[in-house]
Amino acid sequence: MSSVPKGDYDGIRAEVKKILKRPGYDDGSIGPVLVRLAWHASGTYSAKEKNGGSNGAGMRFAPESSDGANAGLEFAREFIDPIHAANPWISYADLWTLAGATAVEAMGGPKIPWKPGRTDFASEVAATEYRGNIDNRLPDAALGAQHIRDVFYRMGFNDQEIVALSGAHNLGRCHADRSGFDGPWVVNPIRFSNQYFKLLLTRKWVPRKWDGPFQYEAIVAGTRLMMLPTDIALIEDPVFRPWVEKYAADQALLFKDFAAAFGKLLELGVDRDGTGVAHLVKGGGCPFAA
Ligand code: ZEM
User: Fold this and answer.
1) Which one of 66, 98, 101, 209 has the fewest beta carbons within 10 angstroms of its own beta carbon?
2) Whole-angstrom Cα distance, residue 44 to residue 40?
């Protein structure tokens, strides 16, 4: 792992790209799990309570690190730790979000707007004092459209952005030993595209007969693909579905909308002062909020 000059974020992007390929791990790339790390680091945000979000990098500490929703993300954190070790000037909060953005781009997706400035909690004690209660804020895949809206409206997203963000399920897979669910959504899960939306609309998704949690399956090109109950909710809901249809038909539109929504996700709760630094405040709230 190389050191790059302080403030050279393109240099960090290059370091992330160097470690993405990993033969023997899942589908040969750690890109998807890095995207999930960036999402779970950010997706705890509450617009009303003005806490949660990526600032602080609280997932280094309990209770976020041991939250069942974050099972498996310890691998993502370990994979990129050497980049931090070689470049201790970057905050973990910046590194995790930048790694997720870089991974999307490196897997053929759009360029994600990203800005530095996040600060890390100095210790577990500080995290506890500053973070506020952000337990149980990530979505539960076993639930439906109302739950999806509750979770994403809390962050400040609308229905169109929810569907665009869901396009991330074009990447990676479910792991029985992490979430309980099993399998990839698409045939090539390390390439960002609109296949997930196409498959949602064109395949017959049937309940999988197995011992695990309720999920859907379809065999495509000899591969058993899956959908979560929350994925199927996107084609059953009358407002979500037209966006699934638009993104299935127009990959350029998906790329544009995904980049905007994912960029917004990575910014949630990151409130910078005039010098570009996002300070941490007690209770996790924004220092400049009304
Ligand atoms: Zn996911 N996601 N996600 N997601 N996700 C999984 C995997 C991945 C939900 C969900 O419960 C799950 C978003 C939205 C939602 C990624 C990115 C994004 C898994 C499998 C589950 C269960 C975890 C495992 O077993 O390893 C639900 C319910 C969501 C909303 C309703 C959003 C938004 C994302 C990013 C923008 C990614 C990349 C993965 C694949 C991770 C991997 O390790 O391959």
Assistant:
1) 209
2) 7
